[in-house]
Amino acid sequence: MNNPISRRTLLGLAAVLLAVLLPAAAPAAPGKTVKLLTIGNSFSGNATHYLGDLAKAGGHTLVHQPMSIGGAAMEVHWTKIQANEKDPKDPAGLYGTKALNATLQGGEWDYVTIQQASIKSHDVATYRPFATQLQEYVKKHAPKAELLLHQTWAYRVDDPRFSAKAPAAGEPKTQEEMYTMLSGAYKTIAKELGVRRLPVGDAAGAAPHARR
User: What is the C-alpha separation between 102 and 125, in angstroms, rounded?
Assistant: First the structure.
């Protein structure tokens, strides 16, 4: 992997998630078990890399089931869902050997997260209608779970995306512009869905993180 994300950054991302999933409890409070299912891509993998360790250090237990596809946009997950609905045996509708509907139904999840692909994260139009469709699907199969919108972050400052002499219309020209655009898109979609946003991208800010 080129330009790997530092351990310090990964710990920082996990700390932001932990603050939402496991709010600070009284010192004498018993350990809590939190069940989390993430529907995403490598960015959810990065952000949760140390989440279990941090939860354990605080006396808690994290049960985490990733349903991820590298580089996947919300549309990709919705297409996979549709394939599974059409034919449960079709590999195109499975995450490895798992079907999303069965996994949602069988986990008694506290939280389920969804996120947009980083390459599309700045463009709010790419979230529609897939964010709403995913929300409805999660609510159908895991009605007790809280859906959270898991924000991604901007590419590092020297990413080739920002070196184009003539960027396509609507494309971010700098890391800072990408961050501003994606942050606005996530806030807009979170408001439309009526859900909480995991502000991992805000925590990352405009620091020189690696592209994944």
Answer: 29
The count of C-alpha atoms lying within 13 angstroms of the C-alpha of 66, restricted to the half-sphere facing its C-beta, is 17
> How are strands ordered across the β-sheet holding 196-198?
61-68, 33-40, 111-114, 146-150, 196-198
User: ∠41-34-18 over CA atoms, to 5°?
Assistant: 65
Tens-place pLDDT, residues 156-173: 888 888 887 777 888 999
Cβ of 109: how many Cβ atoms within 10 Å?
A: 23
Give the CA distances from residue 165 to residues 100, 115, 171, 176, 184, in Å, rounded to whole numbers and listed in that order. Answer: 42, 29, 12, 17, 25
What would the pLDDT profile of 179-192 be if each residue is shown by its tens digit? 999 999 999 999 99
- CA–CA dist 150, 148 (Å, integer): 6
Please give the model's pTM, rounded to 2 decimal places. 0.89
Rounded distance between C-alpha atoms, residue 66 and residue 39, angstroms: 6
Local structure of 28: helix, strand or coil:
coil
Q: How far apart are CA 115 and CA 100, in angstroms?
A: 15
The CATH number of the domain covering residues in 7-18+34-168+194-204: 3.40.50.1110
84 CB-contact burial (10 Å; exposed 0-12 / middle 13-18 / buried 19+): buried
Q: Which helix (H) or strand (E) holds 68?
A: strand 61-68
Q: Which two tokens stand for residue 4?
A: 């790997």
